[in-house]
Design a protein that fits this description.
The structure is a homotetramer of 134-residue chains. Chain A is of the alpha+beta class and 134 residues long. Chain A has a single domain, classed as Thiol Ester Dehydrase, Chain A (Roll). Chain A contains three helices and seven strands; from the N terminus they run βααββββββα. The first copy, chain A, has a five-stranded antiparallel beta sheet with strand order 1-4-5-6-3, with helices on one face. The longest helix of chain A has 17 residues. Chain A is elongated and about 45 Å long. The termini of chain A are close together. The model of chain A has no long low-confidence stretch (mean pLDDT 96). At the A-B interface, α1 and β3 of A face α1 and β3 of B.
Chain lengths: 134, 134, 134, 134
């Protein structure tokens, strides 16, 4: 899987002392964005140059162990499914000590700038074909 | 289902002009908190007086339609499952025009203050027995 | 001053057990938005119908006492200064027990949709003339 | 000044297409945390080992130019003032193209774990004496 490291910030913690559960979805966003970038295209360019948005249809996260303040964690991302009209990213959030913190996925469709569902652009398809798979 | 209204704030939107997908998990938190409060116990008191934390084991959200800036939306919350060692809340995010924006659920276990898994406290059980169910 | 109540949510707290300091700027946004709404115009309509954006030039907050989880706090908002090309809102964050939690201000300019600085639209000026002042 | 790079994420943007103004305070937190780390002590360790919290007394930000989605920006941090009972960090947010996006500062006091104001611990003082100054 593609790997990208982030650090749990003070503003990410809650009064339990753990990273608040909604932030994991932000981490998923960072994971899929950096996966795309490493494949050679920024998500900014997907929106701007391919003219396609990838809104989230479904987000799912299973929390295994808590992330704490200042923990350095890996966001691991891979492509789990590629279809004509949708795709799925899979994620693992892993502590730098190797412990698994969470697993999850997001499912996306493709929308044109004016909000119509479209097929996955061929340029994106070709990019995704080279992505790590699970 | 229990209903609580919130408004989409500027800081909730992203450059698509929609509420960012992670904020729905925050709305779920507001929903279950206000459900508890209306049953007669604040979640603050669950932590402080019953000495039990309800960390999230799983969060899931299916996004149906986008929420936009300044939209007033209903967070609808109900209890979907009550077990000895875990419970599940179900949510619907509904636009004030009646349109369904998202459905989701969160699953929780019960932890003592020192982090050990415990059974649902009887006071919480009694409260939950009076909650709206789906 | 105009008053609007919000509640400190779990996701707002940090591991000190207090509301994270950046969230106060979000509360300021809620304050000025609800002030405008009570004067008869939503900020959404300012952007859409008057075609003017009010980006923040300066934000300032003095933190006096901490807000804690589930605290109900008042956002008090008033207009502190109205000029042709800019305006200033003043804020007080007040605990429901009456204690002052924070004071602050934001300064805004007026931009057309294409990003040029413009004068305050006359409709907004008339609205602001009726706003509470400090 | 100390420099640390971050990237503007989708969840940071608002419907103007810019980074929402409250996130700059989060960036300031990242800046002072990484400044401390590079001096040899994590802020986590300041709280845990020195037993002192550095709550924010004042936060101030002047916004000069907007940060946009996926922009890579530098957080530049320095110590602006060291006093017995308080200290001030100064920040510059700089686009990777060199353009100045924002300047600001935060003022902090020192609290013991039980919430009493204390003097700056000598270990922190020694650390801060080696920090970049403005």
């Amino acid at each position: 899987m593609h790997r990208f490291a982030i650090r749990v910030r003070y503003g990410d913690t809650d009064q339990m002392g753990f990273a608040y559960y909604a932030h994991y979805l932000r981490w998923f966003e960072i994971g899929r964005t950096e996966l795309l970038r490493d494949l050679g295209m920024s998500y900014a360019s997907v929106e701007r140059d391919l003219g396609v948005l990838l809104p989230v249809l479904t987000a799912h996260c299973d929390y295994k162990r808590s992330a704490r303040y200042d923990d350095r964690v890996w966001i691991e991302t891979a492509v789990a499914e590629l279809k004509r009209a949708s795709m799925r990213f899979a994620y693992r959030i892993v502590h730098e000590d190797g412990g698994l913190l969470a697993i999850g996925y997001t499912e996306h469709c493709f929308l044109s700038r004016d909000g119509r569902p479209v097929r996955m652009p061929v340029e994106l398809q070709q990019l995704m074909d080279r992505a790590p798979r699970v």
